[in-house]
Amino acid sequence: MAAGGGSPSIVEFFGGEDGYRCGYCRSDNGNLSHGMWAHSMTVQDYQDLIDRGWRRSGKYVYKPIMNQTCCPQYTIRCQALHFQASKSHKKVLKKMLKFISKGDVSKVASEEEPMDSHTEDVATCDFPYKSESQVSQSELTPLAVDHTEGVENEDKGSGETKEEGNVQKVESDSVQICADKDTPVPAEPSHSAKAVHAPPKPGKGADLSKPLCRKAKDIRRERKLQKLLQNQMGTAEGSQLQGDQALLLQNSKSKTNQPKNIEDFVFVPLPDDARHKLEVRVVRSSPPSSQFKATFQESYQVYKRYQMVIHKDPPDKPTINQVRLVPVSFEDPQFKASFNQSATLFAKYQMSVHKETPSDCGENEAEHAPNGPECGYGSFHQQYWLDGKIIAVGVIDILPYCVSSVYLYYDPDFSFLSLGVYSALREIAFTRQLHEKAPDLCFYYMGFYIHSCPKMRYKSFDTDFESRDLLLVVVRKVRLELNFGSTVTLGHPRIHKFAVAVIKGLEPGYNSSVRGQYRPSDLLCPETYVWTPIEQCLPLLEHSKYSRFNQDGNAVDEGRLKELGRVKVLHKRTVMPYSVYKKRRKGPSDEASVQQYASLVGQTCSERMLLFRS
């Protein structure tokens, strides 16, 4: 993603008249969205675009037509600075920590990725997805009970049924005790004491020599009562302590009882004899850094295996151009040279004649801004190295106000580590790290939330437990790059053809994830583009799949188009306002198309980005 050098964004608008097959509800032509091809894109422009409901897949940037599309997709973000990990999140972090420290995988080796593409490939495109009948039993196995943090996601109905069944087997006279194969089984149940107390064979029936199984919530309730009693006793004893001793005891208890955050699990010191070493490296992918180039082939092999095993792609489908994930660049060196001269002349004209500032002309945007992160802004790969080997790669955009999660691929052999959830938590922690250097960067964008998708909605959660997850549908878009070659210029017919192919699902590129709740989260109002807490949005979405979240009826889009004549246009390699271009244009008027484009991107972006016109 271009971030500096004074090169503005250059886009080619396609509109959104045609409907395509929906990957959520499987409608043949219900998916409607506006689209444009980004020949180049600055980080500030993309930040402003995603704050207006746009999203990009490689160089193709699209915006769902929210009030018409079959499955509205709402932009969702997490307030990273205030995020608190739930118990399920902590389990994932503990699992990774335990694996690194002890190499213990006995309890988790059969567990599948709970939030990434193991669930289903439901996306805007029509891709093969794992149906319910294809889900293995190991994927349905719940997490092992962790008594240190308590047990969650209990299946109440099945739990009560099993417990009642065990009680009945012990107390009823009609219990039939399984015998050896050589022992004949009587037609009538035995009433003898010997039969009742006979030890069952391993794995057959309840072991009467042991106490009855108890529910985890009963155990937690008992522990809580014991803790309250201990606190009361400690209070009584503490009343006898004098001055500083009581204050010291109180401070030590308060520190001990503070909940752990992500950093406490991620950056905890490991023992000297740790079995594994995990390292997370952030390498720039656009423009590609030397580290990115050096590790590209290894990263590609992980991507290829991920696509073949998880998405069932044939061996020839995952290509290098897809994993390259370079979203924006100037394809034609000759065009770049002439464009830079044109852009410089335009900036000089605007500053001299119209008294605009350099920032208005895009002349002072720097890749490494003074108050920005040390790594700079743009597109990056977050590589997860385990014992000197890449096991996962998270593709992210670092923007002025957020870290935007784009895609994740990983080695399927390590799916037991729940790398989808783990990488999301690491990206939230990374956002917090960047915030220390860049105070404005404080959000984690997770993609889209689709409330109307029946396959991916999970509403049956226990509201009595604060840690219970409200699963969100988040669509993470994989970036695509088409290898045009060095002779492709603006307006090339293959550009639109490929963009349509992405929407129709003829090219790989979409991945959806079912994610645990990442609180606090906000959804973007599709009409006024203001952020609203998700708790306020859900009741509205229950009533209607499309909803305006801003309850102020008089509120309007503050960034709406106000002056069409100020929209910047790139025509015949010359930058000009639309008012000038309109006079020079020959042929039928394209004002309606330009008006639609400008109203969708907003006044600010329309004056900063260059709309290509042939």
Overall description:
With 614 residues, the chain is α+β, with helices and mostly antiparallel strands. The protein has a domain at 10-102 and 278-352 and 368-458 and 517-558: Aminopeptidase, CATH 3.40.630. It contains 16 helices and 17 strands. The strands form 3 sheets. It has an 8-stranded mixed beta sheet, sandwiched between helices. Strands 3-4-2-1-17-15-16 form a 7-stranded mixed beta sheet, with helices on both faces. A two-stranded antiparallel sheet has the order 11-12. It is globular. Residues 107-196, 324-336, 362-366 and 456-516 have low confidence and may be disordered. Residues 21-91 form the N-end aminoacyl transferase N-terminal domain. Residues 343-460 form the N-end rule aminoacyl transferase C-terminal domain. Belongs to the R-transferase family. GO terms for molecular function: arginyl-tRNA--protein transferase activity. Residues 146-172 have a biased composition (Basic and acidic residues).
Strand and helix map with partners:
Layout: E1 10-15, E2 33-40, H1 43-50, E3 55-57, E4 60-64, E5 74-79, H2 87-102, H3 156-171, H4 193-196, H5 216-238, H6 244-256, H7 262-266, E6 278-286, H8 290-294, H9 296-310, H10 320-324, H11 333-353, E7 378-386, E8 389-398, E9 402-410, H12 419-437, E10 443-449, E11 472-477, H13 493-504, E12 510-515, E13 521-524, E14 531-533, H14 534-543, E15 568-571, E16 574-577, H15 578-584, H16 591-608, E17 610-613
